Amino acid sequence: MNRNMNQWFEDFSNGSMRALARIISLVENDEPIDDDLRDQLYQRTGQAYRIGITGPPGAGKSTLVNQMTKLYRQQGKTVGIIAVDPTSPFTGGALLGDRVRMDDHTLDSGVFIRSMATRGSLGGLAAKAQEAADMLDAFGKDIVIYETVGVGQSELDIVEAADTTLVVLVPESGDSVQAMKAGLMEIADIFVMNKADREGADRALRELSAMLHLRPAQAWNPPVKKAVAMKNDGVIDILETIGKHRHHLEDGDLLTRKRKQRFVKTVHALVSYRLKQDFWDETARQILEGHIESLDQKKTSPYRAAKQLMANYREGVR
Predict the structure, then answer these.
(1) Of 1, 106, 173, 232, which is most buried, counting CB atoms within 10 Å of its CB?
(2) What is the C-alpha to C-alpha distance for residues 278 and 275, in angstroms, rounded to an integer?
(3) Which CATH number fits domain 45-252: 3.40.50.2020, 1.10.10.10, 3.40.50.300, 3.30.70.890?
(4) Strands 79-85, 143-147: pairing kind
(5) 106-134 pLDDT, tens digit each
């Protein structure tokens, strides 16, 4: 390790929140990190329990995360939060700013909150969120929470990195549930019907339960929990249910298998992301520009252009 990295690692090892923030920034910004440092940090992982929280925008996910964090802190557990936000078109930074929404934890040294921006590109985001979670794990956080802004494919990829995944809905989420039914059904370990004091909540719960009954019986059947996160109603029950799911995974050695699968998926994601970065060099861009210039004559199909680009890349690798 170079001297600068060595100092960051030493500060990180001594519990410096600044060093933690700095290392996560290196990850997020694709800045080079010494492989030895990555290895040493990764050797410290495996203790944190990871919780993924997703659902349609406006479902109250941040409020729920806020209340869960309070309860975990009351239990003496430290918490790291990775909030993946949409990107400001002006600054390129995270737009929703979960730090603003979680003011209660600003001065709590046992809580670390990091907003990660999509920056208009989903490539590699899941891998970056995963590596940021690894840093929080290595730092010694007991609980790591991923919170995403929606239920699109990028969000599903991110929460797949969790040990337990919560899908948060509201009574008005019916159309969203129908649209995302397959993905939600596959990733959810626990469903939370938030804002359950609203009109139509009971009907929404019945509809969701009916959908779940169509699933084949499994060792763990995702329960549906009612909550009003704003009032802290039902949040204790949610934490208890997360604990039950954790025991279910640990008792059957499923947690170990899940983490091995996560390792493989992370490697795949990193390789895909880095190959994409390497592929689009200046020569590849010039080849593509040449095809675009002849687009009006329709002389070349996109398939032939892709074939030429691949041939150029293979030649460069050799």
Answers:
(1) 173
(2) 5
(3) 3.40.50.300
(4) parallel
(5) 778 899 999 887 554 444 567 788 889 99
